[in-house]
Amino acid sequence: MSASTPFGVWLRAPVPASPFQARMQALWKAWRRLRGNPPALAGAILLVLLLAVAIFAPLIATHDILAQDLTARLQKPSATHWLGTDDLGRDIFSRVVYGSRITLYIAFLAALIAAPLGLIIGTTAGYLGGWTDTILMRLVDIFLSFPSLILALAFVAALGPGIENAIIAISLAAWPPIARLARAETLTVRNSDYIAAVRLQGASRMRIIVHHVMPMCIPSVIVRITLNMAAIILTAAGLGFLGLGAQPPSPEWGAMLSTGRQFAMNAWWIAAIPGCAILLTSLAFNLFGDGLRDILDPRHG
Amino acid sequence: MAEAAVPARRSGGVAAPGLPSWSGTALRVVVSIAVTLFGLMALTFFIGRMLPLDPVAAILGDNATQEAIDAMRAQLGLDQPIWVQFARYVGDVVRLDLGTALTTGKPVLADIARVFPATIELATVGIIIGTGLGIPLGVMAAAYRDTPVDYFVRVFGLLGYSTPNFWLGLMGLVLFYATLGWVGGPGRIDTAFQWDIEPVTDLLLLDTAMAGQWEIFRDVFGHIILPASILGFGALAYISRMTRSFMLEQLSQEYVVAARVKGLSWMRTVWVHAFRNVAVQVVTVVALAYAFLLEGAVLTETVFAWPGFGRYLTNALLAGDMNAVVGCTLLIGIIFVALNLLTDLLYRLFDPRTR
After folding, report:
1. What angle do CA A3, A4, A9 make, to 5 degrees?
2. Interface of B with A in 37-56 (CB under 8 A)
3. Are residues B164 and B291 in the same domain?
4. Which residues does B123 contact at the CB level (< 8 Å), separation at least 6?
5. Residue B153 domain-assigned?
6. What's the whole-number average pLDDT of chain B?
7. Is the dihedral of CA A71, A74, A77, A83 positive or negative?
8. Which residues in chain A are contacts of B340 at CB distance < 8 A?
9. Which residues, including other chains, have CB under 8 Å from residue B88's CB and lie 6 or more apart?
10. A263 contact B CB<8A
C-alpha cells in the first residue's frame, strides 16, 4: 500500500481518529510483520489455499467421491485420474479434496472446544487462587500426565468410534496445556493497577475475569492453539488410521491411509497421497503458528 | 510431539522453589505423588466405568438373557454404588491387579510385562538415534544461527513435528523393504530364526549378542532399524529444537564473549563452555522425548506389526477391551509421573542454580 494514496496516509496516521482506524492500523502492522517472516507467510498462504480447497471442493473435484468403478481400480495417476484410483476405483484426487473439509472441521471444532475450556479454567484458577487454583491445577496436572494421543485413544475407546467422538476425545486431551498457559498469563495481570481500578468500581469477580483478564490471555492462547492444530490434525489422522475416527466410506485422510495400507506394496500412491496432504496441512499450521508467536508475542521473538 | 514445543515443566507438583529442609520437601513430594496417582486412578476409572460403553455387553454379547446380565453385573460389582466400585478399583490397582484382558484371557499386567520389552527395545534404539543426531544438530544450529546450517536443522525439525509417523513408516516399508530390500520387513525377526533364540532379557539385540548369534543379530537389527529411525526422527525434532533454544540463550551470555576474547576457538567455546551449562536441561528433554516415544510407538508398531505395547493397546482398543485399555493408560500415566519426578531430581542434584 503506497504512502501517497489517501488510504495509505490514513493507514499510517500517527494518531488514529476512530476505533475502526486504530484496528485497521493494527491489522496493517501485523500484515507487515507477517510479510517480513517468509516461513509464516508460506504457512498462511498454504492455509488460505487449504481453506479455499475445502470451500470450493465441489467445483475442484473431478469425480464423484463415492462412485465406485471396479474396472478402473488401483490405477496409476493419469490424465483422467490425476492422482490415480483406490481399491474400489474411486478417484483419489477428488477424495483428497473433499477430505480437507473433514480435517479442517475436526481441527477447528476441537480448537473451538478446547481453547475456551482451557481459557475459562485457567483464568478462573489464576484469578481466584487458593483452593480453586490448587484443585483445578491438580486436575490439569493429571490430564498432562498422559500423552495426548493415549488419552484421546482411551476416550474414543470408551465413547465408541466415530468422527464426533473423535472430536470430543481430542478436545478433552487438548485443553490442559491451554489452561496452564492462561493461568500463567492471569497471574501476571491479576495484581495490575487496572484490575484494582475495576475492582474498586465494584465489578464482580466474574465480570473481572471475563471482561478484563480473559482478553489479555487471548493472544497467547491463539498462538498456542494454532500450534496445537498441527498436533490435533496428526491425532485425528492417527485415530482415522486405526479405524477409530471417521468411518468409511468417508474420505478422511487417515481413513484413506488405512485402506491404502493394505495395497501399499503394489499401489503406493493410495497411501502416499493422503499422507502428503496430512503432512502439508500440519506443516502449514506449524509454520503459521511459529510466525504468529513471533508477531503477537515479541517476548519469544 | 508438537505438544511439547514449549518447554512445559510438567512436574508432578514437586517444583517447589528453594529447599527449606529436606524432610519437609520429601514429605511434600510424597503427598503430591500420592494425590497425583489418586487422580490418575480417578481419571482412568472414569474412562473405564462411567463412559457409555457397556462392559457387560462387551463380555456377554447382545443376545444374553436378563438373568445372565444381572449375574454378570453382580460379578463385576456394577450393582454397587459408584464410590464402592471406585474404592474396589483403587484397592485392586494398589495390589497390582489391573483385571483380566478380555482379548487374551490373561491378567492385564502379565500381558503388559510380556509385550513391554519389544517396545523398550524399539524406543531405546529410537532415542539413541534421536539423541545422537538431535543434540549435535541443535548445538550447531545455535552456533551458526541464521546460516544455511541453522535453516536446514530448523526445516528438518519442523518436518519431524509435522509428519505423521505411521505414514512415514508405511512409505519406508514400501521403499526400503519392498523396493530396495535394504531392511527387514514387519515384525521383530524373520520367522526362520524365531525359535533359535534363548530369551533372557527379551531384548532381542541383547539376547543374540550375548549368545554370539551374529547372523540373527544382523536380522534383528535389519528389522528394528527402520521403525526405530522413524520414532527417532520425531525425538530428533524435539531434542534439536530444544537444544537450539537452550544454546541460543547461553551463547548470548557475556562469558561467551570473554572466552572468545581470551582466544578460544568458536567450537571450543560452544561445546566446552556453553554446552556444559545446558547439559542438565538437555538430559531432561531427552527423558521426556523417551516418554513421548511410547506415544509414537502406538501407531508405529501398528504399521510394523511390532509385537509390543502399542500394538497390544491398539488391539485392545479395537476389541473394546476396556480392562486392557484402562490398564495401559494408567501405566503410561504412572511412567510419565515417574519420569517427571526423575527429571526434577536431576535438576536438583546436578544443577547448582536450583539450590
Report:
1. 55
2. 39-40, 42-44, 47-48, 51-53
3. yes
4. B231, B290, B293, B294, B297
5. yes
6. 83
7. positive
8. 145
9. B77, B80
10. no
Question: b or e along A136-166 (b: 16 or more beta carbons within 10 Å of the residue's beta carbon)?
Answer: bbbbbbbbbbbbbbbbbbbbbbbbebebebb
Domain hosting B157: range is 108-329
Q: In this structure, is residue B210 part of a structural domain?
A: yes
The pLDDT-based confidence of A301 (bands split at 50, 70, 90) is very low
What phi and psi, each to the nearest 5 degrees, are found at residue B34? -60, -45
Cβ distance A147 to B317 less than 8 Å, yes or no, reads no
CA–CA–CA angle A87, A92, A98 (5° rounding)? 125
Last residue of a domain, one of B43, B60, B95: B95
What are the grid coordinates assigned to B156, written together?
528438518
Calculate ∠ Cα B195-B176-B3, nearest 5°: 95
**Among A131, A141, A165, the residue to mutate for chain B (most B Cβ within 10 A):** A141
Distance of CA B229 to the CA centre of its chain: 15
Grid coordinates belonging to A233: 490434525
Q: How many residues does chain B have?
A: 355
Residues B151 and B239 in one domain: yes
pLDDT tens, position by position, B280-317: 889 889 988 988 888 888 889 999 989 999 899 988 88
CB B317 within 8 A of CB B184: no
**Is B72 within the bounds of a domain?**
yes
Q: Which grid coordinates belong to B258?
A: 570473554
CB within 8 Å: B170 and A264: yes
Q: How far is it, in rounded angstroms, from Cα B110 to Cα B216?
A: 27
Residue A249 one-letter amino acid? P
Query: What ipTM, to 2 d.p.?
Result: 0.85
Give Rg (Cα) of chain A. Answer: 23
What chain B residue is nearest to A157 in terms of C-alpha separation?
Answer: B317
CATH number of A46-56+82-296: 1.10.3720.10
DSSP, residue by residue, B317-353: HHHT-HHHHHHHHHHHHHHHHHHHHHHHHHHHHH-GG
pTM of this structure: 0.86
Instruction: Report yes or no: A274 and A263 within 8 Å, Cβ to Cβ.
Output: no
The residue with cell 521383530 is B188
**A63 in Cβ contact with A91 (< 8 Å):** yes
Residue B158's nearest CA partner among A274, A227, A159, A182 is A227
Q: Do residue B47 and residue A180 have CB atoms under 8 angstroms apart?
A: no
Amino acid at A284: A
Of A138, A227, A261, the CB nearest to B5: A227
Give the chain A residue whose CA is nearest to the CA of B167. A275
Instruction: Mark which residues 163-222 of B lie under 8 Å from A by CB.
Output: 163-164, 166-168, 170-171, 173-174, 178
Taking the CA atoms of residue B168, residue B172, residue B175 and residue B178 in that order, the dihedral angle to the nearest 10 degrees is -130
Q: Which amino acid is at B210?
A: M
Confidence of residue B3 (pLDDT cuts 50, 70, 90): very low
Pair B186, B83 in one domain: no
Answer yes or no: is B14 within a domain. no
Residue extents of the structural domains in chain A: 46-56+82-296
Compute the nearest-CA separation of A148 from chain B (Å): 8
Task: Tell whether A208 lies on the interface with B, counting CB pairs under 8 A.
Answer: no
